[in-house]
Specification:
This protein is mainly beta. It contains two helices and 37 strands. The chain has a four-stranded antiparallel beta sheet, with no helix packed on it. A hairpin with a 2-residue loop joins strand 13 and strand 14.
Length: 442
């Protein structure tokens, strides 16, 4: 596989460098490898395209939220709110308020339960027909585990609800900190953002332990750079982009960092979350505003320069997966097969990942019964499946296991899961995973 490395140039361009392993070989061997590489690139490019969707708006789109492959919501400048129920093929505009405020956060918990963040937090429980608002000021992000429990970050701190957003209680006072990202796993919730300093910003984070919230240890970060974007696939792993701000303005110094091994300890009488941090790539050519990792190796990020990047080795090397020039703000992987991204001028991109090399009989061979399911369900799958995973709509893996040797049926205990939409992913040796939606109704 050809690996491409980013190297920063004075003009802000990207130089792509071939890995040395190919050029240290004899000419005839190298030629064979390069031919195979070219064929691999061509075949992959044909099966993982980002396609532009017609949104019927020229307003900037700042955020999006899909609850499944079909139902999603995008928001943006000047009061823009657009909704789709057919995977982005058609969009309808929703009206929230006469104030032409910018909407910068959104969460579709169900196709009926919607949240939009502008000057305050707006809520609809009828699919966007009517709206109410709360006193949370300038909400930055929302994350729900089900249609009752979730968290919201705003410029004044972190808030929690247990009644579907009708009422909110503040659990973290922001002070001079602004928490801009949040993720709620149920037992564990996390929020990250920045704290303003004399001439710059520094990354911060908070995480709960029971009903108490504690701060991240500042010295566990690799440096004092600012938070830019983050993805927590699980409570103890984070994939994060950082930037060395200069006088409150982002610089060209961007880093990709991995955080692992979170542990709550007492430091000089204060409880703090300590963790290990590792700078994986110190020469990132773009200000990455959104990131998502499918697994420990495969990840994606979209940048301010308008391109989407991908990695196949945990962030060590990145390549351009989609080349553009319009600023991209947010990206969401609904599952491992479908993703969306939004940006300026009404730009909406959709990526559907298929192999194109498999025969059709390798698909639709996994079935879930019953579906919707309550306490248990059966996964009927092809013999030889190496891994079965259950994934939340937010992308968190809540179950991972290997079927018994030769088995074609696996019984799953769902009693520990909250009601909501999940995805069952089965993986065969050397083949692309098959993903099926599972509705849990406890």
């Amino acid at each position: 596989m050809l690996l491409l490395k980013f190297e920063a140039l004075p003009e802000g361009l990207i130089r792509l460098k071939y890995c040395k392993q190919f050029f240290n070989q004899k000419p005839n061997i190298m030629k064979v490898h390069l031919i195979a590489i070219c064929l691999t690139i061509i075949s992959q490019a044909g099966f993982g395209q980002w396609v532009s969707l017609e949104t019927q708006t020229s307003k900037n789109l700042y955020a999006l939220s899909f609850v499944d492959e079909d139902n999603g919501l995008a928001v943006g400048s000047g009061g823009t709110v657009i909704l789709t129920n057919d995977g982005g093929q058609n969009w309808i505009s929703l009206f929230i308020t006469r104030n032409a405020e910018d909407f910068r956060s959104v969460c579709m918990v169900t196709p009926q339960l919607l949240f939009v963040g502008g000057n305050t937090l707006y809520r609809s429980d009828d699919g966007g027909n009517t709206w109410t608002n709360s006193d949370i000021q300038y909400p930055k992000s929302l994350s729900f585990t089900d249609n009752l429990n979730g968290i919201c970050t705003g410029i004044t701190g972190v808030f929690k609800t247990s009644d579907g957003g009708i009422n909110w209680s503040q659990v973290v006072n922001g002070g001079t900190s602004v928490y801009e990202a949040s993720v709620d796993f149920g037992e564990t919730a996390i929020a990250m953002g920045n704290v303003g300093g004399f001439a710059t910003y520094s990354a911060i984070g908070v995480r709960n332990e029971g009903n108490q919230w504690y701060s991240f240890d500042n010295f566990s970060f690799p440096n004092s750079n600012a938070w830019v974007s983050v993805h927590f696939p699980n409570p103890d792993t984070a994939y994060m982009f950082m930037n060395q701000f200069n006088n409150w303005i982002p610089s060209a110094n961007n880093q990709f960092v991995r955080l692992t091994g979170f542990e709550l300890i007492s430091v000089f009488g204060d409880n703090l979350w300590v963790f290990q941090s590792e700078v994986i790539n110190d020469i990132i050519p773009d200000y990455m505003q959104s990131v998502h990792f499918i697994n420990a190796n495969e990840g994606f990020a979209c940048g301010e320069k308008g391109s989407i990047y991908s990695t196949q080795n945990g962030g060590i090397d990145w390549r351009v997966d989609y080349e553009g020039s319009t600023i991209l703000y947010r990206m969401q992987f609904v599952n491992n097969s479908v993703a969306y991204a939004v940006g300026n001028d009404g730009l909406m991109l959709k990526r559907e990942i298929t192999t194109g090399t498999e025969s059709n009989d390798t698909f639709n061979e996994t079935h879930v019964f019953p579906n919707p399911a309550c306490e248990v369900c059966r996964i009927f799958h092809k013999q030889g499946v190496e891994l079965i995973e259950v994934i939340t709509a937010a992308g968190s893996v809540v179950y991972s296991g290997k079927p018994s040797s030769g088995a074609q049926e696996t019984l799953l205990n769902l009693s520990g899961l909250r009601s909501g939409i999940y995805f069952v992913r089965t993986t065969l040796p050397g083949k692309v995973s098959e993903v099926i939606k599972l509705v849990v109704a406890q």
